[in-house]
């Protein structure tokens, strides 16, 4: 396992993909800061050309609770895309770059290779989440947002972390699709389908029963009047996560690599 982890970490370190994902989360944090800046003084934002002269943003306040909630919502929505990209790259690259046979020829169990990839994916997504939280806290401090308290910050960061953990679990079927489909495109297809159906099912009011809608509901993206996902939603996310890992490991263990 140590050798497999070292190999996967080396692949990630020599790739540009980690920098691309970090840039995506940096831009997302900057967008959150921009919204807070606009909400602080909409007349100032109009004079700077940030919003149209007749545009008006209502229903939100430029304060720490809103800012921290926005970070959670970024994690729920953008996390499926960015965390999914991590899984697609880690598993799909072996087939797209024709390195899977060389990898399986090593004296390392196939299950160990799969688990090492999932561990690296988890660590990678953890670093991205920490980056988002740190940038969010720095931006909120620079803007001088009101309503700060240690309890609020701890609650907000915990919500971001829980949302990220659920989102990471929901990317394991994407890893299975990239493996069984032997490349990037099947994984990307499953990822886009998950994002699409999560929006549709949530709009119909059944999001708490559809695992890919649960992180968004948990983060409060649907608004204060929406029903929380509850214990059932969290259990469904856990089942999907564990099932995705098991399915991927079984496929790698039993599939014939004939090309």
Quick take:
Keywords: Membrane, Transmembrane, Transmembrane helix. The chain has 259 residues and is mainly α.
If you had to describe this structure to a student in words, what would you say it looks like?
By secondary structure, the protein is an all-alpha fold. It has one domain. It has 11 helices and no strands. It has helices spanning 2-13, 17-40, 42-47, 64-96, 100-104, 110-143, 150-169, 172-180, 184-203, 214-219, 230-254. Helix 1 packs across helix 6 (110-143) and helix 6 packs antiparallel against helix 7 (150-169). The chain is globular.
Structural features:
single chain, 259 residues, mainly alpha, 11 helices, globular, ABC transporter permease, transmembrane helix, membrane, transmembrane
Question: Topology, please?
Answer:
Layout: H1 2-13, H2 17-40, H3 42-47, H4 64-96, H5 100-104, H6 110-143, H7 150-169, H8 172-180, H9 184-203, H10 214-219, H11 230-254
Largest sheet descriptor = none
Shape: globular
The unreliable regions are none
Overall mean pLDDT stands at 87
Query: How many distinct beta strands?
Result: 0
Rounded to the nearest angstrom, the distance between the terminal CA atoms is 26 Å
Structural class: mainly alpha
Tell me the fraction of residues in β-strands, as a range: under 5%
- The tally of structural domains comes to 1
Question: Percent range for helical residues?
Answer: over 70%
The radius of gyration computed from the alpha-carbon positions, rounded to a whole number of angstroms, is: 20 Å
Spell the H/E element sequence.
Answer: HHHHHHHHHHH
Q: Can you count the helices? A: 11
Protein name: ABC transporter permease
Transmembrane segments: 20-39, 70-92, 113-140, 152-176, 188-210, 230-252
Pfam family, one: ABC2_membrane_4
Keywords: Membrane, Transmembrane, Transmembrane helix
């Amino acid at each position: 396992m140590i050798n497999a982890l070292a190999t996967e970490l080396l692949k990630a370190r020599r790739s540009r993909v980690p920098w691309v994902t970090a840039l995506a989360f940096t831009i997302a944090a900057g967008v959150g800061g921009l919204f807070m800046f606009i909400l602080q003084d909409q007349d100032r934002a109009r004079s700077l050309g940030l919003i149209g002269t007749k545009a008006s943003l209502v229903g939100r306040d430029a304060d720490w609770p809103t800012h921290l909630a926005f970070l959670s919502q970024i994690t729920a929505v953008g996390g499926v895309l960015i965390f999914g990209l991590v899984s697609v790259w880690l598993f799909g690259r072996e087939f797209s770059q024709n390195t899977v046979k060389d990898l399986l020829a090593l004296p390392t169990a196939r299950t160990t290779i799969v688990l090492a990839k999932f561990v690296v994916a988890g660590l990678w997504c953890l670093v991205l989440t920490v980056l988002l939280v740190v940038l969010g806290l720095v931006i909120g401090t620079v803007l001088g947002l009101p309503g700060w308290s240690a309890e609020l910050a701890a609650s907000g960061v915990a919500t971001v972390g829980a949302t990220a953990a659920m989102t990471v679990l929901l990317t394991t079927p994407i890893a299975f699709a990239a493996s069984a489909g032997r490349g990037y495109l099947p994984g990307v297809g499953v990822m886009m389908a998950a994002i699409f159906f999560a929006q549709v099912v949530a709009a119909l009011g059944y999001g708490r029963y559809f695992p890919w809608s649960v992180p968004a509901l948990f983060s409060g993206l649907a608004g204060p009047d929406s029903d929380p996902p509850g214990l059932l939603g969290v259990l469904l996310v856990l089942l999907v996560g564990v099932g995705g890992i098991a399915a991927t490991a079984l496929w790698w263990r039993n599939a014939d690599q004939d090309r």
